[in-house]
Amino acid sequence: MTIAPGVPRDHRWIGAAAARVARAVGERGLAGSRLGVRREPDSRFAALVLGCVRAGATVTVLDPESPVAPEFLGVSAVLSPADFLDGTPDAADPAAPFDAPAWTGERITADDRVCVLSGHSGQIVSAIACAVASGATLRPDSPPVTDLPAVAEWLAVHAISVVFTTPPVLRALAAGDRLPGTVRQAIVENTGGLLVHDVEALRRAAPACALTAAYRTGRDGRPLAVHDVPPDWDTEDAPLWLPAGIFRRGADVRLLTAAGKPASFGEIGALVVDGVPCGDQLRRWPDGSLEFAGPDRDADETAAAVRELPDVRDATTAERFGEDGEPVLVAYAAGPGPDADPAALRRMLATRLAQPLMPARLVLVPELPLTAAGAYDLDALPDPDPGEDRVAPRTPLEEQLTVMLCELLKTEQIGVFDSFFELGGFSLLATQLATRIRESFGVEPSLLDIFGAPTVDGLAQLIVRRQLELSGSAELEALLAEIERTES
Fold first, then answer.
1. What is the DSSP letter of 35?
2. pLDDT number for residue 412
3. Is the residue at 287 inside a domain?
């Protein structure tokens, strides 16, 4: 095993160096505490991390470029490699048996070259421990993930074969044709954000690359659960989210309802592992698998549908303030060229998503910016232009409804997919809207109907169906068919 760049170091050197660090941490009274470790691209950093873990400390890896001061991270002390390893440890130190907390087994071999494209402390510890334990070569000097072209070139130059990373970085590399053929194993942190779409994208970009999902990797480098995606896994009818996987041996895994009782098969429950709530809602199936679920996953479904639109490489969602000052869901799509029509893409999206999952706005961007930790940089995304993706009325019925809503909301423009309530509508105005619809079209929707279909598009379909129920005329059937054609 070697760690590059710098002077190559083998596992015996790492073991001795980690032992020296562990002893020093204990002597300073820091064993078992939470320690900040400054990230540096050399072997001493790897030894410092493993030594802290060996001493029972919880490691928070600090990015030198991070704007967050260490005192705000809740660490007891901030350590640098030079604090402990200013000299060369004795590689033959008998007190240094090597026991890195590795879990990857045969997923990593001595022939591999390993890197971590993430700022997640648990992933960094995991990559170091697993690379060292398997005898692989570790490269801790990768460029920041905020510079993806440089990352792609670096991966190819150094023939990296195993990558520890996050879903956003994996998507950006796979969709942007930036993943070299040398990469044969991707180990991806999964807290419910890894989707079946990501498996399909990786297979297109690197057919020989295996995918392992690591659920909630702790700061000791060990994930709570692991799921290896089978190479012949059929994604056609698969759930949207990859499962949490097989939990580590001996873990006390429970799914509890809001009442604190065990959840039944198919019932959504809060995940608790070894008595500690994980903050995720999952559903257990009879085969023992755990599937991510719950209303907090709605934004994932929206982003997944946007990724399926033509020429879209990646997509995410973020909350932004609407015209009424209330938060609304905005979808951002990377890939379509400058001539792409956001309104046309939004019309297509409406045929793939239920109304409650439709974003208030769809914004096209050249790339989705990433943070140094490998997450989407939502703060760097632009605010939406209110009229950029607005879809104009497509039928006389939609034109009448648009005029009606504009008058009630005292605004000049409304798109057929704009929500009545996100534009400032409230219950009293909804009651007035129901009355106007009855006077104009002979059907009176309830407030519940309007809450369920708060757009011109939804209301038009509701009106036509109610009229069809009343008369069943061929003319209305033709009108319904016309509306459905406009959605396709």
1. E
2. 78
3. no
Average pLDDT, the chain: 86
* Residues 6+ away with beta carbon under 8 Å from 166: 117, 118, 120, 123, 188, 189, 373, 374, 375
**How far is 247 from 332, CA to CA, in rounded Å?**
34
Q: Are residues 302 and 237 in the same domain?
A: no
pLDDT level of residue 480 (50, 70, 90 thresholds): low
Residue 273 in this model has a pLDDT that exceeds 50 = yes
pTM check: above 0.90: no
DSSP E strand boundaries for 276-381: 276-284, 290-292, 314-321, 327-334, 361-365
Split at pLDDT 50, 70, 90, the class of 286 is confident
CATH of the domain at 474: 1.10.1200.10
| Separation of alpha carbons 277 and 279, rounded Å | 6
CATH number of the domain enclosing 329: 3.30.300.30
> Does residue 207 form part of some domain?
yes
DSSP H helical segments within 252-393, as ranges?
298-307, 342-350
pLDDT digits (tens, 9 = 90+) for 94-124: 444 455 567 988 899 999 999 999 999 999 9
Residue 203: the pLDDT is: 94
Same domain membership, residue 123 and residue 63: yes
The parent domain of residue 359 ranges over: 296-380
Q: Which of 380, 406, 421 is the last residue of a domain?
A: 380
Structure tokens at 124: 């960094």
- How many domains does the chain fold into? 3
For residue range 221-252, what is the model confidence (pLDDT) as tens digits? 899 999 999 999 999 888 889 999 889 888 89
8 Å CB contact between 199 and 178: no
User: CB of 365 within 8 A of CB of 382?
Assistant: yes
> What is the 8-class DSSP label of residue 391?
P
Give the residue from 99, 82, 95, 125 showing the smallest Cα distance to 20: 95
Residue 211, domain member (yes or no) = yes
Residue 65, Cβ density class (10 Å: 0-12 exposed, 13-18 middle, ≥19 buried): exposed
Question: Is the Cβ–Cβ distance between 369 and 381 less than 8 Å?
Answer: yes
Please give the C-alpha separations between residue 421 and each of 409, 411, 431, 456, in angstroms, as whole numbers: 10, 13, 12, 12
Q: Which residue matches tokens 């039944």?
A: 264
Q: Is residue 391 part of a domain?
A: no
Of 223, 4, 190, 209, the residue nearest 101 (C-alpha): 223
Mapped onto helix, strand or coil, the DSSP state of residue 171 is: helix
Here the tokens at position 241 are 């989210």
Report the distance separating Cα 245 and Cα 163, nearest Å.
19
